[in-house]
Amino acid sequence: MTASTQSVVTHPETVSKKTVSEIASVAAGVSLRSVTKKYGTFTAIENITLDIPSGAYCCLLGPSGCGKTTALRMIAGHEEVTAGEVLIGDRPVTHLPPAKRNTSMMFQNYALFPHKTIWKNVEFGLKMKGVASSERKQRVDEMLDLVGLRTDPSITVIFI
In this structure, which CATH number among 3.40.50.300, 3.40.50.720, 3.10.290.10, 3.30.450.40 belongs to the domain 1-100? Predict the structure, then answer.
């Protein structure tokens, strides 16, 4: 499987202090090198190579059960790679736990805290990583601006 990439900004007017390219420039590229994932005798993914350049958006398309989520889970470290290598930037991360990969994963079914605000849900991962409060505020605001979700801070996720 090889992915093509394209940068897309749907609401550039919502980005405040930093431009999309400035935010994307600090993101590392992601590569899968001849990656295979087996569950016992069943091969879920066989020998895929995928390169997503730094700052690019990528969409994995395919029918249900073809391995899209498995590939994402291997990148994030939630699934072990049977063979091959995962790199973030130039750094091999295949054997690192999820917390050491500096990645995030958004799940198909909402993995949000319904009792928390939109802002607090976005902040949660940064807080768990020990990011300072002032930096969390800046980064959460930037990300919410980026996706056009900067709203009333008291709105919980059940209202969006």
Answer: 3.40.50.300
User: How far out from the chain centre does Cα 80 lie?
Assistant: 17
Q: Which residues of the chain have pLDDT under 70?
A: 1-27, 107-110, 153, 159-160
Q: Where are the domains of the chain?
A: 1-100, 106-160
Sign of the Cα pseudo-torsion (46, 49, 54, 55, in order): negative
Q: Which amino acid is at 127?
A: K
Question: Model pTM?
Answer: 0.59
pLDDT for the residue 19 = 54
- Neighbour count for residue 137 (Cβ, 10 Å): 14
Is there a contact between 139 and 131 (Cβ–Cβ < 8 Å)? Answer: yes
pLDDT in tens, 10-55: 444 444 455 555 555 556 799 999 999 999 999 999 999 999 998 8
